[in-house]
Write a structure and sequence with these properties.
single chain, alpha/beta, 5-stranded parallel β-sheet, 5-stranded mixed β-sheet, 11 helices, flat
């Protein structure tokens, strides 16, 4: 069996009893960072008086996962195998997604354990949404793509959750405040750790607080929904197809929505009319 085991995002006590049992019985670990996983097992062994024994650890991260999966023999899963990201839920802005996909395509039995997730902790702590939300993970680092991501987050008719590094959290909140200084936001860092810190308020207010704060640590930002977009209806392909406009214009609009080549769309539209 292959197990995807969430690890504590702060307090070691957040590890589940089932996760501890599996960490004892699994023989092979795929790890986002083998050094972090070894340190985690050492800390857990001291806290809970558990002997995890020697484990075979294989580095599995965004830079090497494709190559490893290309050469991976499914027979390895005849043993109990675990995947560990550095902290939190595997596959959520962390490696693991491709390994799940590999298991599905190769008929490998697997289980994903429930566990710590920074996005949901931040969302509940923010009181900015009780139902619908959008998880955006990490935004683009710079340039036009980053501006587009920020605009998307501000335009969503649902609360948006964003991960951000300590190096960029201040500039991110500043950019939001310059666009909409009255937008209500919530920021939190060091979730479940001793120095957990959180601020809520209008974007400009939170920006002023962050300027005085220690920014070290991974941040989660929750942006309140765009109330002006509550009645927003997405433009569907079927809506465009029904428009009485030239085929070339129609094909360009469809390409904007589905990302396909407008020339190919135009050719298909032309064929469908004949």
């Amino acid at each position: 069996m292959l197990y995807f085991i969430p690890t504590p995002i702060g307090n070691l006590g957040d590890i589940s009893f089932r996760a501890l049992e599996l960490l004892k019985t699994c023989e092979i670990f795929f790890c986002e960072d083998t050094r972090v996983s070894k340190s985690l097992l050492l800390s857990l062994s001291h806290k809970f008086q558990i002997d995890f024994k020697t484990k075979k650890m294989i580095a599995f991260h965004t830079h090497n996962e494709r190559e490893i999966l290309k050469n991976l023999n499914p027979e390895i899963f005849s043993k109990n195998v675990a995947f560990l990201s550095d902290a939190g839920m595997p596959g959520i802005s962390d490696p693991g997604y491709t390994l799940v996909d590999f298991a599905l395509k190769n008929g490998i039995e697997f289980e994903v354990l429930p566990g710590a997730n920074a996005a949901l902790v931040a969302l509940v702590s923010s009181a900015l949404s009780e139902k619908e939300f959008v998880f955006m993970g990490f935004l683009s680092n710079k340039g036009k793509e980053r501006i587009k991501d920020i605009q998307r987050a501000l335009n969503h008719p649902y609360a948006s959750i964003v991960y951000e590094s300590p190096k960029r959290i201040l500039s991110l909140v500043e950019q939001i405040s310059l666009i909409d200084e009255n937008r209500e936001i919530f920021v939190i860092k060091e979730i479940s750790k001793k120095f957990e810190t959180k601020f809520k308020g209008k974007a400009k207010e939170v920006f002023d607080k962050l300027k005085q704060a220690n920014l070290n640590g991974e941040w989660v930002l929750v942006i309140s929904k765009n109330h002006q977009n509550l009645n927003h209806n997405s433009l569907l392909e079927s809506d465009i197809l029904e428009l009485d406009i030239p085929l070339k214009v129609k094909s360009k609009l469809l390409a904007k929505i589905n990302g396909k080549n407008p020339k190919e769309i135009y050719a298909k539209l032309l064929l469908s009319q004949n």
